Give the backbone structure.
Amino acid sequence: MALKAKYVEYISRYSTLKQEFLMMGQKYHTEENAMFLFAVIDYKRQPTLDTCYNIYQRYVKRVAEKKGAVNEDVRRHIYWVNLSDGVMNGIDAILATRNLNPNIYDGAFREIVQMLDKQRGPYGDDIVAFVKKYGLEVMAANTFTLFPQWA
């Protein structure tokens, strides 16, 4: 296992690591995944309904792809992540209650981390090298606070 939730949480605390992780995602055209993970971590640290809805609008909500349904200006600010129907339905059900829930994106966070962890080839190799380069196995050992259920 190359990537773990606690590593992403650790990376999010340091701007240099965060930037390098985002650049690695850009290299493989998957930066929306890293952006989503960091947005969820920020949300869990200071949950607000505005932040919750902003994450949903920017990364989760699906808009009809019919011609003209999403103008180009809007499309430039949306970075959809690939989530299973079960996770999407869970998020939609929680949002429907209009109650603040700091754990609303936990399933999506876990799904994205697991997807990144399963990467093979050059992207997977780069993730493994990143983890080793920064000693995340050791450095992140005691910083895992936002997702203790996955320790």
About this structure: The chain has one domain: 5-128.
